[in-house]
Structure to design on (226 residues):
């Protein structure tokens, strides 16, 4: 069982559509990160959210941390082919000396 | 502008062989870690180090050894490769441990054990 459950696992959409992907857990986290990974590369940090209810925007990407700090969402507006990639959420495990744990990711494909 | 450098990029091993995956960073980061990435499993932490001379186990440490003799280098050793160790391995570094700092990843090593 994954500590961080990401959904959907796969998502294929047309350019210009909006989408939301989710990262859920039964644990409370001090903070949560979103990374994007392109084929053949390592993950690259997009954002860190710290405060419950926090919303951060990065151009067409909107990240939200749940009020209870157990979940997060990533919303992309007007998706473009360049958004294609694997989106990973990650959080520190407070009861295990802050080891980082990653979700399995959402693989997004944006078709032109 | 190197960041985190991993070598080799691809490797095929026979069952029972040993090898070392190399990882070097030039950002003077104290914290370094190794992950493996398998389909549907995400990134799983193998071993980590909070500084030179200090290492500790992560979530899936069995079959792997690490050492940290310098701040820059953090090699991962497979003692006797098994097919279950077929995976993509990523090395990462950050200023300190935890989710409040950015982790910088290498490009990965794709390992196949036959």
């Amino acid at each position: 069982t994954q500590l961080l459950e990401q959904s959907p696992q796969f998502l294929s959409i047309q350019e210009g559509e909006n989408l939301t992907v989710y990262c859920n857990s039964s644990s409370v986290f001090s903070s949560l990160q979103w990374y994007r990974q392109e084929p053949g590369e390592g993950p690259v940090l997009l954002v860190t959210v710290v405060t419950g209810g926090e919303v951060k925007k990065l151009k067409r990407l909107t990240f939200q941390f749940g009020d209870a700090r157990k979940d997060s969402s990533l919303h992309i507006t007007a998706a473009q082919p360049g958004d294609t990639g694997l989106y990973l959420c990650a959080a520190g495990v407070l009861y295990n000396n802050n080891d980082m744990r990653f979700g399995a990711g959402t693989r997004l494909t944006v078709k032109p | 502008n190197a960041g985190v450098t991993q070598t080799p990029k691809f490797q095929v091993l026979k069952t029972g062989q040993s090898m070392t995956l190399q990882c070097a960073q030039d950002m003077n980061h104290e914290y370094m870690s190794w992950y493996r990435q398998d389909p549907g499993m995400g990134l799983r932490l193998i071993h980590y180090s909070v500084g030179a001379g200090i290492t500790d186990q992560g979530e899936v440490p069995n079959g792997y050894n690490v050492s940290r003799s310098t701040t820059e280098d953090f090699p991962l050793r497979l003692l006797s490769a098994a097919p279950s160790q077929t995976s993509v391995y990523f090395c990462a570094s950050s200023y300190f441990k935890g989710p409040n700092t950015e982790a910088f990843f290498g490009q990965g090593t794709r390992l196949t054990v036959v």
